[in-house]
């Protein structure tokens, strides 16, 4: 019995065996529907060519026999469309390994699309704080980073996009400074063209701002109202007058652009939902993030999760579009044996990056390495295959963790507001120094370039 994970390997094998039949086609789509059943979609003109049509039907017959129950009856297994765009209908797609003109299209119940990577924004630096698992101190670290950047004189815009578990705003805003509305309110009102009614009341300035400013956009306002009912609608696409659909992440991007235009921040910090869901997908892949911080605890749950995500990017041929923006953060590094813990974390991170995102580097050709003819003591190295790769010990590598040390003073968001209001900068450095220094350098370096 064939299972879902065997669909693409079997499809690859069957299609490769019919290479000559596929050669005349401009494109072919392997379409997986919401139930995981497969059809083939080919150009409309193929239907008019009896030889080509018979060939495609024979391919699907062979495919269906091997894919059952993930296939339709042979008579229902081939569809015809005028263009590839018509066939995809906006669904995520990626090329099937080993084929130039064969694409896989997945029909999903959600619009989260980890395989579609938006280009880096060229404006204000956007930094996303993300974790596979919750409870790793991600939001606390973001609040401390915002505090530090404001101490440096920067204007910081903070978005609490952990919509299903909000709380960041309480660390940066006392109760009397909470705005009337939040991100959820704007997303719901925008569906009925009423976003402007709440836009001016979704941002508040933190009392922790000193030389700079911290502008906070919470998940919800001071009075959360029917938050659960609103939360169930934020993911909705907006249907325009012409019938076109604007997916929720595009609406979120429009809100972010409007906030940047109004506040003119020096940096944007985004607190993402943990896990692989709609919010995380939008934050990481759709908002043009320049730096994506991967908060990590040493353990199988962390690395299995990141491996699944990296393999998806690798599988969809988009890894090169995002890998240089990633950086591992060692979360809640224990007080005892910190060096040993961080070495283990770095080793695990390196293993996942090396298996999925780093390029394989071919060994040097021994015949091409030797002293130069001039006898100046220099050596030539020819025929080396260059790629994006790092040594395990390279401190500049994305797998090398920026440490956030555990400290009881920063163990919860509830007490963080008062803590940061009278904090000793040296204490912040002791706990978050590696992280905040890395973020600050990354933002300054990008601005300088």
Summary tags:
single chain, 449 residues, alpha/beta, Rossmann fold, 2 domains, eight-stranded mixed beta sheet, five-stranded mixed beta sheet, 17 helices, 17% strand
Tally the structural domains: 2
Q: List the strand order in the largest sheet.
A: 8-9-7-12-6-13-14-17
* Beta strand %: 15-25%
Q: Assign the structural class, choosing from mainly alpha, mainly beta, alpha/beta, alpha+beta, or little secondary structure.
A: alpha/beta
Describe the largest sheet: 8 strands, mixed
The whole-number mean of residue pLDDT values reads: 87
User: Can you say what the CATH homologous superfamily of the largest domain is?
Assistant: P-loop containing nucleotide triphosphate hydrolases
**Strand tally, please?**
17
Per CATH, which architecture of the largest domain?
Answer: 3-Layer(aba) Sandwich
Terminal CA distance reads 55 Å
CATH class division of the largest domain: Alpha Beta
Molecular structure report:
With 449 residues, the chain is α/β, with parallel strands linked by helices. It folds into two domains: 4-106, no CATH class; 126-357 and 398-448, 3-Layer(aba) Sandwich (Rossmann fold). It has 17 helices and 17 strands. The chain has helices at residues 7-16, 19-22, 45-48, 50-67, 84-88, 138-151, 168-172, 183-190, 196-199, 227-231, 248-263, 278-286, 300-315, 319-322, 338-356, 416-421, 425-448, and strands spanning 28-32, 38-43, 78-81, 92-95, 102-106, 126-131, 155-161, 204-205, 213-217, 238-239, 245-246, 267-272, 291-296, 326-333, 369-371, 379-381, 402-405. The strands form four sheets. Strands 8-9-7-12-6-13-14-17 form an eight-stranded mixed beta sheet, sandwiched between helices. The protein has a five-stranded mixed beta sheet with strand order 3-2-1-5-4. Strands 10-11 form a two-stranded antiparallel ribbon. A hairpin with a 7-residue loop joins strand 15 and strand 16 (379-381). Helix 6 (138-151) crosses helix 17 and helix 13 (300-315) packs parallel to helix 15 (338-356). The longest helix has 24 residues, at 425-448. The protein is globular. The termini are far apart.
